[in-house]
Amino acid sequence: MRYFHPWNKFLMSDIKINDLNKNGLYPEFLIKEINDSLRYYIKKYKRIPGILRDAIEYSIENNGKRFRPVLCLLTAISIGKDYHAFLPTACAIEFIHTYSLIHDDLPSMDNDDFRRGKPSCHKKFSEDIAILTGDALFAEAISLIIKYQKTDNGTKIRVLEEIAHASGVEGMVAGQVIDVYYSGKKMNSKQLEYMHQKKTGKLIIASVRCAAVLCGTSDEYLEKFTEYARNLGLAFQITDDILDVTADSNMVGEKAGKITLKGKNTYPEMWGISRSKEIAADKINKAITILKSMKIDYELLVNIANFLLLREA
After folding, report:
1. Do 312 and 247 contact (CB within 8 A), yes or no?
2. Residues 153-176: pLDDT tens digits?
3. 144 touches 94 (CB < 8 A)
4. pLDDT tens digit string along 19-61?
5. Using a CB cutoff of 8 Å and minimum separation of 24, what contacts does 111-117 make?
6. β-strands 118-119, 114-115: how paired?
């Protein structure tokens, strides 16, 4: 079954990027669905310390694009499934992403006072509460899948394995360790890509793979989805780094150029803005080529890939 959506007219596989308009590329309706579901789950925390509930709500409530959970739901849609059934896993992924941001902002890590235009969790609630809030969100992400994701136990374990792998010593934590260790030191291109693939790419890959696993896709298609997401994840981080250097601070919600000022290793720092944009575009083209080799309803996944090259936040 193929799904029709009014923004499918913006399918851009054969259009030059300079001719594109970002309007219509992002499935905004899914953001509302995810936000409503996040609030639903948070409201269930009635017997926890009030400051913890406040910190969780504060950190989860934002004007972000919910890129990772949206990608999870779009993967299900592309396979012909009703995305509503995948909201628990999508929300769990957003919990994990939020936990990682809370910890990244801490003074011992990136030391950022603002996140998406408002004070970081540790600035609002104190460092100790921020650490514990991040810990809680990670644990509750696992709980969401166990309690609410409808599937057989074997599949549920596979989904949990995907999330654990993406979050742990071979995923986000590994990438963050490399980022911290090399702060103020020069990386080579292979080290830079490795860091980004772990720190950012692994959870993006898990967002796609979790949906594919829940849909019961073949091993062949699971690998294709993985390669699509791997290219997408690197393009996401490159464009994110470009925004940190070039975008207006009101758009990104943080001080423009902060990464360069801190001596962080980024694609713009290594390759320059122009070449970084070319690398990101190449990754997007590879991701789209993979999608077109699959017998799925790939339009929305193509659109969100192209959106990365045009995003302003």
Report:
1. yes
2. 999 999 999 999 999 999 999 999
3. no
4. 434 557 899 999 999 999 999 999 999 899 999 999 999 999 9
5. 112/254, 112/258, 114/253, 114/254, 114/255, 115/62, 115/253, 115/254, 116/62, 116/63, 116/64, 116/253, 116/254, 117/63, 117/250, 117/253, 117/254
6. antiparallel
Helices (H) and strands (E) in the chain, counts: 16, 2
As a residue count, the chain comes to: 313
Q: How far apart are CA 253 and CA 240, in angstroms?
A: 12
β-pair partners for 114: 119
pLDDT in tens, 115-143: 888 999 999 999 999 999 999 999 999 99
pLDDT band at 3 (very low <50, low <70, confident <90, very high): very low
Fold that domain 28-307 belongs to in CATH? Farnesyl Diphosphate Synthase (1.10.600)
pLDDT, tens digit, for every residue of 74-114? 999 999 999 999 999 999 999 999 999 999 999 998 888 98
Alpha-helical (H) ranges within 65-216 are 67-78, 87-104, 121-125, 127-148, 153-167, 172-181, 189-196, 202-214
- The one-letter code for the residue type at 25 is L
Distance (Å, rounded) from C-alpha 289 to C-alpha 122?
42
CB 110 within 8 A of CB 123: no
Structure tokens at 307: 């959106």
Q: Are 209 and 226 in contact (CB under 8 A)?
A: yes
Q: How far, in Å, CA of 173 to CA of 198, rounded?
A: 8
Backbone angles phi, psi at 311, to 5 degrees: -65, 155
Tokens of 168: 């742990």
b/e 119-150 (16+ beta carbons within 10 angstroms → b): ebbbbebeeebbbbbbebbbebbbebbeebbe
Residue 119, both tokens: 């004070």
Domain borders along the chain are 28-307
pLDDT recorded at residue 115: 86
d(CA 144, CA 149): 7
Instruction: Quote the CA–CA distance of 45 and 66 in Å, as a whole number.
Output: 22
The pTM assigned to this predicted structure is: 0.88
